[in-house]
Write a structure and sequence with these properties.
Layout: H1 2-19, H2 25-32, H3 38-59, E1 70-71, H4 72-89, H5 93-101, H6 108-128, E2 137-139, H7 143-147, H8 151-172
Antiparallel strand pairs: 1-2
Helix pairs in contact: 3-8, 5-6
């Protein structure tokens, strides 16, 4: 059941990526150059929908969260690697898969990069457990835990901020 639900939501998300034209190389590069805000508008919209949907499903007992630890060193290094790969390739991992599905074979390098990156990570993981994965380790926490507030308050605040940003982007015409 869970795998089927994951597959169904993945197909819907892929369809929305395609319909939103975020699989297009021109949109990816336009975002990286801050000339076209389609990608960021799509991402912010997905964050709001995902945040509300996940918390609602958790509160209804449909899903449970399996938190990954907050490790600042690993997240900063991972983010830099992710961003560098996106800048060099012109696709993030998800959009490279979607682009290949549309027949843009040059994006296969992104998929191969994901596989190679996963293999390298698996090989260096034992060494990273003693170094990078200890730098700024805060454990399995959420913003709601840290601030001692109900998660719905943060969902409402983040959603309002994101919707405000989206409104400003639309008014700017980009």
């Amino acid at each position: 059941m869970e795998l089927g639900f994951g597959l169904a939501t993945g197909i819907v998300f892929g369809f929305l990526l395609q319909r939103g034209q975020v699989l297009r190389f021109e949109k990816q590069v336009g975002f990286l150059l801050l000339r076209d805000l389609t990608i960021i508008k799509f991402m912010l919209s997905a964050i709001v929908v995902g945040m509300v949907g996940l918390h609602l499903c958790r509160d209804l007992g449909i899903i449970s969260f399996s938190l990954k630890g907050t490790v600042i060193g690993a997240q900063v290094i991972g983010g830099l690697l992710f961003g560098s790969g996106w800048a060099v390739l012109g696709f993030c991992p998800g959009t490279s898969v979607g682009a290949v599905a549309e027949g843009r074979w040059h994006a296969i390098w992104g998929i191969l990069g994901m596989i190679a990156g996963a293999a390298v990570y698996a090989e260096v993981y034992p060494a990273m457990k003693k170094t990078i994965l200890t730098w700024g380790n805060y454990g399995k926490v959420t913003f709601a835990d840290v601030l001692h507030v109900n998660h719905w308050l943060l969902v409402a605040v983040f959603s309002a901020v994101i919707l405000g940003i989206l409104f400003l982007f639309e008014r700017s015409g980009r």
